[in-house]
Amino acid sequence: MHMADALLAPAVAATMYVASGAVAGVSVHKLRKDEDDSKKLPVMAVTAALVFAGQMINYTIPGTGSSGHMCGGMMLSALLGPQAGFLSMIVILTIQCLFFGDGGLLALGANIWNMAFYGCFVGYYLIWRPIMKSNWFCKSTPKAAQRAKIILASIIGCIVTLQLGAFSVVVETSLSGITELPFDAFCALMQPIHLAIGLIEGLITAAVLTFVYESRPEIIKDVDTSDGKVENKRPLKTVIVILAVLVVLVGGVLSLFASSNPDGLEWALFGNSDAGYSDNMGLDEEDFGIASGAADKAASIQESTAFLPDYAFSDSDSAAGTTVSGLVGAAMVAVVALAICAIGGFFKKKNSSKAK
Questions:
Q1: Phi/psi of residue 139, each to 5°?
Q2: Distance CA 143, CA 218 (A)
Q3: What gap in Å lies between CA 214 and CA 249, rounded to an integer?
């Protein structure tokens, strides 16, 4: 769902930068005000890296000629809280944009809003927390009930928040005045395909969160462990190591097998006629949308900063470029996330009096 600069008028792009920046500012203020557990630092680093790696894997949507990839906002907000999850997503999307040329720099504010705001805030406050605090599945054992709520919240959250993100893309292009993308027709393509993409992301998110719940339930937000029947099965360091290994496997190995089909947004815009599917909106991939001085400047900056454009070595089709991109990108995300937390003092050790 990474938008290109050509899909946005400069005024719309600037508005989305302001909106995303305002939410980031509120998130920073909230994290500085609230005292939290320092164990969140390694969890934040490894899960942000996992989301970066996961976004490299496009999975095929059968029968459509399209593919999708996870956004990750629901997963991060369930593990870190909405504020830290949102800031983690900003790190991920900014690194993708600047160093891998994924998504336009002018469109970065919109991409943050579409891919991070809904998953982290709408997904957490309106879906995750209400379901986790509900009395649903009360006839099951406490552990089975918690597990069922995690799965349900993950699937519903990912579906709903991807629908909102996809709809925002349609609204933003409409406000930008791109007449080649009639609102009704574009919406009719974007919403169904992202329904399928959201369902698959929900299942992936549920699998990861269920593993964390079975290993260290206290890491997950709003999980009820008060009855004492849910116990830690693995040391925190072991969980971190397992997730780190998963990052390496996903970013360095599984990324080599990602679907070559266009993602949901590209599929809606350009179709996939080469594979025998519809043209959809039928836009020309080399000449579409809006040309502007701001977009040209943003593209120039990206060309100078992207050392692994499109997750590959420049002027090379070597598969090693994908592996290197997955490993280097994930490492960059982890390091930058830790650095931001250290500079901002977001996660601090609790006072001993409060820890008792």
A1: -80, -10
A2: 13
A3: 21
Strands, E assignment, 86-223: none
pTM of the model: 0.95
Is the Cβ–Cβ distance between 54 and 329 less than 8 Å? no
Nearest to 153 by CA among 113, 183, 125: 125
Q: Which of 148, 162, 3 is nearest to 73 (CA)?
A: 162
Q: From CA 212, how far away is CA 351, in angstroms rounded? A: 26
User: Taking Cα atoms as reference points, which of 261, 269, 263 lies closest to residue 288?
Assistant: 269
The structure tokens listed for 120 are 């982290």
What is the full per-residue pLDDT of the chain (356 aa) written as tens digits? 899 999 999 999 999 999 999 999 999 999 988 766 777 889 999 999 999 999 999 999 999 999 999 999 999 999 999 999 999 999 999 999 999 999 999 999 999 999 999 999 999 999 999 999 999 998 888 899 999 999 999 999 999 999 999 999 999 999 999 989 999 999 999 999 999 999 999 999 999 999 999 999 999 999 987 765 556 788 999 999 999 999 999 999 999 999 999 999 999 999 999 999 999 999 999 999 999 999 999 999 999 999 999 999 998 989 999 999 999 999 999 999 999 988 888 887 665 444 33
Residues near 207 by beta carbon (within 8 Å), at least 6 away in sequence = none
Supply 263's token pair.
């993602």
The amino acid at residue 104 is: G
Cα atoms found within 13 Å of the Cα of residue 334, Cβ hemisphere only: 19
Beta strands in the chain (DSSP E): 59-61, 66-68
How many other CB atoms sit within 10 Å of the CB of residue 18? 11
